[in-house]
Write a structure and sequence with these properties.
alpha/beta; six-stranded parallel beta sheet; 14 helices
Length: 332
């Protein structure tokens, strides 16, 4: 049985009650072998279900759930997480964080995120078609432009505002026809918009808003873009567990440049499917992006290598087998 929540935290308390009641109803009808929680924040639900039905409970730790902390969270969520049978961490960084917060290391195992390569094949279009889709969808003029892009929730840890102020400003001096496309929403959006206006970059940086996953526009952004950037910063109370968008960029044959922050180094294997830059080294980040923008052959060859590496090492079929092994261990 899977219990997962992927929406706003505002409605999470209501979901917890709903999930517990629905899970009880389903488990009365048919017993499950294991219960898989999609997020550590659901640990209290898992503990209650385990006590009632005596079924092993596992959870996944994605990032913020390992870094967030206040008295209420520690008392209800973290204390419950310690009672779960196993916790699957999407990176070693998450495992280290949870161990430091008192969770038994024997309960922690690392399984990275994976990607289903087959689900992308019928959505990928050529670059010109991708440009046309983006230009029509967002009223942009992208012909002849070098496109840097990112797709993420606009929160402090993603570092988008700092990228604009400290990295893009260096790139634009070397590559004046470059633009930066930002897909996503979040609390940082007004600050990012303010930074764009302050630098008079309204014709250089574009906030596209939320783009539906696996939509035509979603794939068009990856196919039209030249370089995917992940300029994360370390912030208190939040963490990047892995970075699934890195794998998505690689599967579209796009080079990735990212800061070595939190669990990103386990998604970006330096020189294989991306370039990993020391945290806060803005000049090196800008230089790496520029090299991919200025050398089309290097960009194309690296993108092809990144796609092949990602297919071989992060294929969802092999990741699923590792999950199944954990389920078998829990049941036995």
């Amino acid at each position: 049985m899977l219990i997962a929540w992927g929406h706003s935290q505002v409605f999470l308390p209501f979901f917890i009650v709903f999930a517990f009641l629905k899970a009880c109803f389903l488990l009365i009808q048919k017993k499950a072998d294991v219960i898989q929680l999609g997020d550590l924040v659901l640990s209290p639900v898992g503990v209650l279900l385990n006590r009632i039905f005596h079924i092993p409970v596992l959870s996944i730790s994605h990032g913020r759930d390992s870094a967030f902390g206040n008295k209420l969270y520690d008392k209800f969520v973290l204390s419950s997480a310690k009672k779960l049978d196993r916790i699957i961490c999407v990176s070693s960084n998450m495992k280290t964080r949870l161990k430091a917060r008192g969770i038994n290391e024997e309960k922690l195992t690392v399984i990275p995120n994976g990607i289903n390569a087959d689900s992308f094949k019928d959505k990928i279009v050529d670059r010109q078609e991708a440009l046309n889709i983006l230009q029509n969808e967002f009223a942009l003029q992208l012909e002849g432009k070098k496109i840097i892009f990112s797709i993420c929730r606009l929160v402090p840890k993603k570092g988008i505002k700092e990228f604009i102020d400290k990295v893009f400003v260096e790139i634009i001096t070397k590559c004046q026809n470059s633009v930066f496309l930002i897909a996503g929403c979040g609390p940082e959006m007004p600050l990012i918009a303010e930074s764009i206006k302050k630098n008079h970059w309204e014709n250089k940086i574009f906030l596209l808003g939320q783009i539906a996953y696996n939509s035509l526009a979603f794939h068009a952004l990856f196919m039209a873009g030249d370089v995917f950037v992940m300029p994360n910063r370390q912030v208190s109370g939040d963490a990047e567990g892995f970075g699934i968008a890195i794998l998505e960029a690689s599967m579209h044959g796009r080079p990735v440049v990212a800061f070595d922050v939190d669990g990103i180094s386990e998604a970006v294997i330096d020189g294989k499917n991306g370039i990993l830059i020391k945290a806060n080294d803005n000049s090196s980040f800008a230089e790496s992006v520029f090299l991919f923008l200025s050398d089309e052959k290097k960009n194309r060859d690296f993108g092809q290598m990144a796609r092949k590496y990602t297919e071989e090492h992060f294929n969802w079929n092999s990741i699923v087998k590792r999950y199944m092994e954990q389920y078998k261990i829990s049941v036995s």
